[in-house]
Amino acid sequence: QVQLVESGGGLVQAGGSLRLSCAASGRTFSMLNMGWFRQVPGKEREFVAGLEWTGGNTYLAYYADSVKGRFTSSRDNTKNTAYLQMNSLNSEDTAVYFCAAVYGSGQKRRQYEYDYWGQGTQVTVSS
Question: Tell me, what's the pLDDT at 1?
Answer without folding.
Answer: 87
